[in-house]
Amino acid sequence: MIFTFTDKFIRKTNYTVNAHMIALLRKGWQEYAASIPPYAGNFEGKGIVTCAGGVNHVTCAWVNINMLRQTGCMLPIELWYTGHELNAETIRAFEQLGVQCKNSLDYTGLQVYGFSLKPFAILNSSFKEVLFLDADNNCVADPAYLFDDVLYKTYGTIFWPDYWITDRANPIWEITGSSDYHSIEQESGQILINKEKCWKEINLCLHFNLRREHYYEMLLGDKDTFRFAWKALGTHYNMIAMHAGACGFEAEDKDLLYGLTMVQHDSADNILFLHRNAWKWDITAEDELVWDKIRRFKSGAARESCIISHCNMGESKGRTFYDLVGEVELLDFRELFGDYEQKGLEILKELRNFKFYARFLLHYYNLKARPGYPRGLKESTFDHVIQRA
């Protein structure tokens, strides 16, 4: 599947389906939506949900959660994974941060993995109200106040904008019966949902994700399965009005920003989220400061274009970065947030010195490379390798 992104913010896909398949997909989601049982009502309170499996996401989750706690955030946190993605020692380490780790296999026999774990975790978390955060999405302040947002209380949802608009030729419009062609796509690195108010919608979102062979080809993974579930059911959602910005470092000639992090705002246009999706913590060097400048559109400004560029950082070839053109402003990251990134680097360095992290790396390597692991082998089998190293 090939996705293309124009400098006018249009996302296109070469995925096509005939009229018969469109009708089948439409009938499929409509029948499923009609069968969704009423809200269960056995959920309580507010909390943060994230997903992590594998070295990059576990590393990011560790930095993210520690930085959350440093903001003073005391919300309970659930970290969801599948199967043996986490070993027992790593789970215990997260528990020391007040995190409850949950294995999706304890809740379903379905193969829930990758992006589909996100709506599954939201649905099955113990919380009635959920702030979902991608593992690589950092909060610069305690996000608990979002639960008191007036529009959230009205609609039970806050979504955040991506850079893109879905091409009008995309079959998703006909499948869902929506014609809101100029609406901006959703960036699902952060989602706020009241499950009681949005029960059918989040269930339909999971339906789309479990049929990834079609929907992911149209929607670039999970992110817009949320938005189009709401659109399919004719449910209003609240999308943050402030456009997504970009954070990174300037090129030598200072005419281009290598934006490697999406910047998201609250409903008062305050910067709140730094989604480090193009340069994650696991590949960051111990002294590598990359959050230098923020480029964002001025409040209420029209967007002009998006510059997609590539920058070689060490041996990383062809990594994609973004810059924004239009009525923009350039902000100094450290003037705004001081040593925030440095604190992240300190947490990362500390993690890399923990023995549990070294054992987790070996655990995950063997999980991927050694048939039968860990069923026929105990984690302690490999302890001597770590100790000798």
Automatic annotation (TrEMBL):
One of its GO terms (molecular function) is alpha-1,2-mannosyltransferase activity. Pfam families: Mannosyl_trans3 (PF11051). One of its GO terms (cellular component) is endomembrane system. The keyword ATP-binding does not apply. It is found in: Endomembrane system; Golgi apparatus membrane; Membrane. Keywords: Golgi apparatus, Membrane, Signal-anchor, Transferase, Transmembrane, Transmembrane helix. GO terms for biological process: mannan biosynthetic process. Its main location: membrane. It is a single-pass membrane protein; Single-pass type II membrane protein. PANTHER family: ALPHA-1,2-MANNOSYLTRANSFERASE MNN2. This is Alpha 1,2-mannosyltransferase. It comes from Niastella koreensis (strain DSM 17620 / KACC 11465 / NBRC 106392 / GR20-10).
